[in-house]
Structures are given as C-alpha cells and as structure tokens.
C-alpha cells in the first residue's frame, strides 16, 4: 500500500526539497528528508526505506556514492537519481551501479510518480518471491518427509550425504512412494536450491513430442514448429532436472540422453549447434531397470550413467510403523484445509490401516484420509468410517467370516461382532472397570459406554 511505502529524499536545494516533500506527502507516502549525503546515509543506518530519491550532485558526496552504499547495506531498497546535468555517461553508470531509474530536472511529477509506483511494485514482487521461496524451502525440508522406520532413516542419512554434491541420482520405488518429493528435497536442500527445478514425466508426454520437450527445437524443424522452443534441459540450466518414469524413455532418446550426460551439452531438434549446460540429473522409476537392460529395452551404458547414486524408497507395507505418523499428518492437513477440528483414530481403525497392503503406497493413504475427513461426521474415525476394502482386509486378518457370496455379506454386522468381541475381552481383563477397559482399547470411557449401548451389551 502507498501509505506503507517509506521514502528518503536526499536533496540539497531547499526549494526543490520542500516542493517534492509536499507533493509526495500529499500522495500518501511516508516521507523523510535530508539535505546532505552524509546525513542521508546516517538515516539509512537506523531505518529501512523502500525507496531513496537522491540528487546526483550533492555538496559533500555524489549520488553514485550514496547509491553504492545503499546497495551494499540494503540491496532491496530502490534508488532513483535526479539531476539537472544529465548525460548518457552518468545515466549508464548509475544504472550499472544498480539505480532503479534516472530522471532529469526540471522534474515532471507525474513521471516521477509512475517511476515510484513501478519501484514499489518491483519491491512487492521481490518480497513475495522471497516469501514464496522460503515457503518452498520449508516445504521440502527433510523433516517434512515423514518416516520413523529404520528404512526411511537410512534413506534420510544417505540423502544428507549427497545433497551438496552434483552426482546423478536414481530414485527407485513403487508408484506412490514419494519419489518426486525426495527429488525436490535433494534439490531444495542442496547447492542449487536457488536455481530451477524442472520435472518431466517421461511417460506422460507422447513419444513424437518428447524429444522436442526435453531438448527444444528451432523454427522450421518440423511441421508445426513455427517458432524456436527452449527445452526442459535448457530451462534447468544451473539447476536440477527430474526425469520421472525414466524406464519408459524410447531407445532413440536414451541414446541422446546418454550423450547429454557424457558431454553436458544438447542439440535442439533441427539444429547442429551444441549448447553447453550445467544441469544435475535426478531420475526415477518404478520398474526394475536391470531387468529392462537384460530384456534389451534399456541401454546398459545409460543405466550405469543414471545409477551413480541409487536411492531406494521402500513400499508402505514394508514400513508399517510409518502408517500412524503419516495418517496423523494427512488428517491434520485435511482437517485444516476443510476447517474442522483435528480428527483422531480409534484403535481398530489404525489396526485396519496397518493390515491393508497399500498397493498405492503413501499416495493411496493420503487420498483415503482426504475422503475420510470429508465424509466422517464426528471427530473420531472408527472402523466403519474406512472404505470397505480396508475393513474387509482387517476382518480377514482378525479371522471373522468375510467371504463375499453371491448373496452378499452383512459388513455392518461383521464389524459389530468384532467390536463386541474386543470390548468383552477388555472388560474381562480389566475386571469390569470401564475406564480401564477404555484405556486398553485407546478410546474414551464415554465412547466405550456408547458402543456398549449401541451393541446391546449390559452396562
């Protein structure tokens, strides 16, 4: 907002200074004035200004000297220089030193206002960019990849050892295990975090377009190439390119990718000019590339180039201890998004989640938690709130009759039977003390009583 914009005006001529102060104050800017360069620099040491408007020629020092000092002490403060003695040489020098703009006397106030408004807009965009970049870095901290299991801790340890290198990484794991999340964590915690991260799903782009998408093309390279196109590799220069589903890459592009990795240069489609690049390559696959090499579907030399540092993401069914923290995370995330109190899991519901094979891995768990939060009325998730396939897998493990016949099955009754059995066992072990039985079942005493009443059990 204009009222929040703080401007320091450094001008030795009293008439010009007073006129500008009055005009800028009248436009809603928070103004501070100074009649000399030294005084202006002193003010800058004690307060941060959004914009400095400074005369190029002052009695004690030049506006270029002030500009240089401002850019050293407060790089995000924009400097606008004004003078009655304009020349192309001084203008070029001012802009090279980092001045936002340069304006000559006699001042056109409307022109100055436009320059100030643009400088303010630039500052706001920079602030927003810094904020978004911080959010991005926070989002992909290692602590945000959830996993207490031994396998995940070993993965984190290996990731921490490689983030400061530029080594090529191959991430292996089933669909839904979080391979892109790991790739982003490697990038945004490494030396290239301020550079581009470009993700390409090799299986999602038609084969006839993939080469152009990866390496770009020149105008007229093929029918429809009406202008020059920069490819994903060029866009990732100095940063990281993430090649997901690398196992689906056609053989002729495998050859071209191998050359890129060996020579660190590309050729656009339709061009003979080599373009040198500095790109870190992180790839991922959910297929066994060694088997693909044996079958002749994947180049062996490319496989070894990609597999410099392998990272294996274990499937969710092999790290059962991570299901509870992941579930809590997704519940909190979706509850906040849907503006409802944080929900909790009953013991049976957690056991059912842990019994499920999770063929879709973490992505499947996240989707189910979103559905559960949207459809469950209360604040506690019970077994009956989970999808039927998860309940069925749990009841089968518990030994309850769950085979579905052509006549169907009474799933609600099956759930009631298992709840009744567990409550009876807990009451027996607790000597009939409901509070103790509820504690054993990880539910509240009032919830236990409500369940007993619903199930027709004696109170």
Automatic annotation (TrEMBL):
One of its GO terms (molecular function) is sequence-specific DNA binding. InterPro entries: AAA+_ATPase, AAA_lid_NorR, CheY-like_superfamily, Homeodomain-like_sf, HTH_Fis, P-loop_NTPase, Sig_transdc_resp-reg_receiver, Sigma_54_int. The keyword Zinc does not apply. This is Acetoacetate metabolism regulatory protein AtoC. GO terms for biological process: phosphorelay signal transduction system; regulation of DNA-templated transcription. SMART domains: AAA (SM00382), REC (SM00448). Residues 145-374 form the Sigma-54 factor interaction domain. The modification 4-aspartylphosphate is found at residue 55. Residues 6-120 form the Response regulatory domain. It holds the Pfam family Response_reg. Keywords: ATP-binding, Nucleotide-binding, Phosphoprotein, Transcription, Transcription regulation. PANTHER family: PROPIONATE CATABOLISM OPERON REGULATORY PROTEIN, TRANSCRIPTIONAL REGULATORY PROTEIN. Signal peptide: none annotated. It comes from the Bacteria.
């Amino acid at each position: 907002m204009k009222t929040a914009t703080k401007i320091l005006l450094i001008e030795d001529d009293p008439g010009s200074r007073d006129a500008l102060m009055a005009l800028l104050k009248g436009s809603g800017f928070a103004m501070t004035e100074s009649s000399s360069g030294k005084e202006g620099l002193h003010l800058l040491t004690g307060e941060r200004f959004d914009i400095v408007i400074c005369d190029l020629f002052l009695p004690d020092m030049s506006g270029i000297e002030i500009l240089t000092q401002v850019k050293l002490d407060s790089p995000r403060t924009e400097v606008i220089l004004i003078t009655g003695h304009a020349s192309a040489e001084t203008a070029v020098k001012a802009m090279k030193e980092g001045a936002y703009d340069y304006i000559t006397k006699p001042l056109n106030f409307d022109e100055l206002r436009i320059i100030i408004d643009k400088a303010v807009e630039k500052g706001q965009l920079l602030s927003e960019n810094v904020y978004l970049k911080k959010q991005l870095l926070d989002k992909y901290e290692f602590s945000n990849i959830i996993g207490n299991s031994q396998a995940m801790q070993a993965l984190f340890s290996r990731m921490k050892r490689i983030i400061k290198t530029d080594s090529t990484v191959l991430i292996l794991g089933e669909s839904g295990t979080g391979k892109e999340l790991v790739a982003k964590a490697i990038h945004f915690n490494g030396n290239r975090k301020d550079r581009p991260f470009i993700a390409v799903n090799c299986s999602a782009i038609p084969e006839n377009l993939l080469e152009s998408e990866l390496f770009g093309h020149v105008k007229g390279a093929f029918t429809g190439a009406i202008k020059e196109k920069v490819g994903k590799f060029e866009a990732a220069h100095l940063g990281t390119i993430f090649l997901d589903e690398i196992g689906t890459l056609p053989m002729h592009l495998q050859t071209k990718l191998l050359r890129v990795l060996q020579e660190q240069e590309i050729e656009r489609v339709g061009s003979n000019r080599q373009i040198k690049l500095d790109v870190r390559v992180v790839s991922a696959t959910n297929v066994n590339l060694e088997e693909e090499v044996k079958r002749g579907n994947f180049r062996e030399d490319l496989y070894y180039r990609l597999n410099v540092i392998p990272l294996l993401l274990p499937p969710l069914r092999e790290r059962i201890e991570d299901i509870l923290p992941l579930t809590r995370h997704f519940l909190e995330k979706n509850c906040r998004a849907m503006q409802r109190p944080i929900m909790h899991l009953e013991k049976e519901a957690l056991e059912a989640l842990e019994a499920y094979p999770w063929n879709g891995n973490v992505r499947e768990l996240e989707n189910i938690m979103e559905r559960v939060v949207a459809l469950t009325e209360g604040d506690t998730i019970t077994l009956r709130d989970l999808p039927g396939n998860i309940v069925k897998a749990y009841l089968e493990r518990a030994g309850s009759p769950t085979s579905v016949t052509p006549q169907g099955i009474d799933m609600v009754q099956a759930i009631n039977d298992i709840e009744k059995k567990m409550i009876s066992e807990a009451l027996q072990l607790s000597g009939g003390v409901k509070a103790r039985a509820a504690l054993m079942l990880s539910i509240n005493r009032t919830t236990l009583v409500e369940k007993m009443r619903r199930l027709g059990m004696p109170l």
